């Protein structure tokens, strides 16, 4: 902390000032720009995949290209977009403000996190482009150790991205523990802060295990160490255990912060305190820790012991309860509220409806005997896209619309916003509902071809992907336009009580002029709430 | 950020310490994955693993245990000296720690050299395995041996680099009693390196049972 | 009713009783999901309308009662655990074929499925099985991980290199059913298919004995079906392998003492290990014994056997098991 950057330099808007900034808000924005670009890229891959599946047989790409495309899609969406977007993007921007701090605990480390992310992303994408990795984002051995493609650059890239993730996690944990403003106790923290905190714990705990597993594959490819090779005493299933020990909790890295967004947005637009603050906090912590113990449900058919299958099954049910409690709390928050159906709340509703299906089908696939049929079919593909796209991307869009005025001081056009939300909802369901049925029918995932009998459902799904893609483009276009020419938003356009709305929009360099005014709670909309005073003034 | 970043120096020390602990937990999980692998493979190849342990360099491994425990004591003494505001003494203890770290690496190098000479290389490579009754299990054992002790040695190098940097800061006077938490963090990391070894030691040198 | 639901959900016609039972759970789970979804959606829609914003007014502070939350959570947990219990029982049921199941060896390799019968029958891509009889598939892989998936049976099992896994079922409807590879395995993963053919008992007996029943003729067209039966079947092949790699130098086949235990009557019998532990010498034990022979050594013998892990292919191992099984049926003197 020996840096003595003058405030004047921090307020500088030149490129150099941005690239060397230690301001968490700018780092957050840079993360948002980079991760959103990654989403666009991953989306293009998804559209290509769906296009190949429009008709049975080999159509626009050959099988190997298809395999590379789904690898690209998975790796880009998981590690370049889903994992960092909400914690490192919105979390970076908002977490310090929401706890009344001037910055995160380790601002230089924070900037380092961003550059490590950039380097990791560059290595990963370049490695995939030149190395033609075709293993899927799961890198299962022994396919990954024997595939003809060059895999080491991709492994190195993902390994590097993991470092960014761990460092951000450490930073946020230290920030939440030590930087809260005077009088902000744990149980007064905004719910978004809680979920980012839980996410950080998961990132710190499980990411190294993935790094280590990938490192072992790297050793095998570079030096022929064969640590998972059965002929040399190894066991490929152990790789799967190590991989899912990371990658299942990684799902919670992707969805927990999204749940935080939903919790905050639903309160702001219902102008109500959460139905039960404690329930959301404890279920967040429940997901954080019980989520570490459920990875085995990805491997029911991999030859695991029946005891293992039973234990992993029931632990997965427990995690589902925590999510269900959140759903009820969100719905309960609407009760006796003062509800405005603005775009962010529309995305919350989309999240709610899709997440119920995503979550319940999650319970279904954790039911051992049912999973034996659904495992590795399109049913599972649909299930996790309901969580990741229906859940996380809905929340991401809610967050973009809700906090755009905070980040930029400008508003987006409300009518276009609602139109975009409707497009996303329709496109999403068209794309992914047929995939549940395809899975029932028995279509395995990662297939470039399918029997002609499955044509109709695949075609509907592909058309849906076009609607979804077009809606995303539409949203991007009006949001970009708003950034440049949107009407000024004022400091608190929503009349929201959240702490982040108690400073100017966008906030000053050190977030607060004077002491943060945190006397009233972040969800206090009762008589005399300053949030409502602000709204009335406009 | 400006000096006013933290509310107080005490809070800054708290944050740094907490950050370090979080990092250490992360490191523990890095090794935990490998310990799991070791456990699973040992369960699959009980006899081959025991044979591998018996073949290990028990004396060199145990010598390294003594070296590392002594070095942990040295770094703790250094920290104590700094907290008592005796930076010169602290520097001497820290240089002692560094010397022990280098000693550990030297012993490790001798040990590796011996194994390579015997024809034991990672991945079941080397002529040693051709003479064995159950080469597959032993290959797994020695690959894990190289990976785990190698990763640990890498941590020794990283820890030593941190300690060297701290020693330099002590030498120039940039590190004083008021900023003892920085040295405390370095020492914490060093203790972790030590703790990991305390677990590796029985796994690779002691638990060979009877031949 | 079930058939209608199956059509709505696009589930393929089931070919076993287990599949039908799993479908019932499937309907219950998806039905509950739908009901739950509709309930939440209705409440949400009602409140959205009832509490729509009318001007900037403060709201009262409402906090849910803990009892309500706990009871909703508890009720859901009970429901989920109920599904888990039923699902897990069904899963256990799938794991356990009764004694005397018809064993068929399945080997996955990029990108085909090969099936082998103890009688010496072997074929790629077509799996004839008997109707109304328990069948146990013993799966392994020659290269990467594959997964043997039969939608009509609602079953799937990974085939792993260096290990044997099992898939038990009892088909009760004649017909042909597609098989897919469900674990990504490279270029032609999407084309790594096969067909399960459920045959009548007589047709199946014909097939095993080396004849080709009429129903199989079109499916086998263009496929090579070597007639190993003439050479004494898989068990005879296993003896040849044992001779070649040198097992018989130390193990006798006739019960006479040697460096190692005799193989006569060994398979399926209980043996005492050094240290007093007793294990059944089944294919699991023998797989371990071929990998790490001295890890679980039979009492009274020296740990001198080398590992055969790298010397035996999946097919050769299967042949050895068959030979040992044939010997196991005979009594040791």
Beta-strand percentage of chain A?
A: under 5%
Summed up, the domain count of chain B is 1
Give the helix/strand class of chain B: mainly alpha
The radius of gyration computed from the alpha-carbon positions of chain A, rounded to a whole number of angstroms, is: 23 Å
Oligomer: heterotrimer
User: Counting H and I runs of at least 4 residues, what is the number of helices of chain B?
Assistant: 6
Instruction: Tell how many strands the DSSP assignment of chain A holds.
Output: 0
Give the N-to-C terminal Cα separation of chain B.
Answer: 63 Å
CATH hierarchy: architecture of chain A: Up-down Bundle
Compute the number of helices of chain A.
17
Number of domains of chain A: 1
The residue fraction in helices of chain B comes out at over 70%
Overall shape of chain B:
elongated
CATH class of chain A: Mainly Alpha
The strand count of chain B comes to: 0
Write a concise keyword list for the protein shown above.
heterotrimer; A: 538 residues; mainly alpha; Cytochrome C Oxidase, Chain A; 17 helices; 69% helix; globular; disordered N terminus; B: 211 residues; Four Helix Bundle (Hemerythrin (Met), subunit A); 80% helix
